[in-house]
Amino acid sequence: MSDLFLLLMKFEPDHIYHVFNQGNNKQQLFHTRDDYKKFISFIRDYILPYADIVSWCLLPNHFHIMLVAKFDSGEFVKSGNLRFDPLTNGVRKLISGYSHYFNDKYNRSGALFRPKTKAKDLSDERLRFKEEDYLLNCFYYILQNPLRHGLVKDLAEWEFSAFRFYAGLREHDFCSKEIVRLVCEYDEKRFPELVMGRMPDYLLDDY
């Protein structure tokens, strides 16, 4: 992964971000359950030390992670002559680590992901609208993805997202219900109803 890639990402402590990428040329990233589990293990190793995860979903050819950056602003990681915040470095390791695993397993070479992993700062007030809260819509949109892509007819059928956790169908997850209550006003009783609300299409341009 190039240093130019890293320079395109910069996280600020306590800001909320939507991080997402897809397979290069939309190629498939996960072929088996073990592939999904490997990517999840890399999230635990490389992202969780520097962020609280609010929402996440892995799809066959892309992924979404909504998180709150929590590293100290004085921390940095040096790579050659460049310095990066630890969360940017964690995303770099997530992408490069999984790419190495995938290429080795499937006897392939070359780029697995698109060159730029996007990190949209949801703390930016310019993303707030009078009637639509971008941050809250993003939380639900990420969880809706398996339905939007026709992978399941019921979101509870999709294992590789935070949906089951927030719906009370899974006990443990990356996420914390205490944090999501603060960030997204999460209400477990209303969650099944609210998660089915459709995010306005004009807010989806960069997803």
Automatic annotation (TrEMBL):
InterPro entries: Transposase_17, Transposase_17_sf. It comes from the Bacteria. Residues 12-145 form the Transposase IS200-like domain. GO terms for molecular function: DNA binding; transposase activity. One of its GO terms (biological process) is DNA transposition. This is REP element-mobilizing transposase RayT. It comes from Lacibacter cauensis.
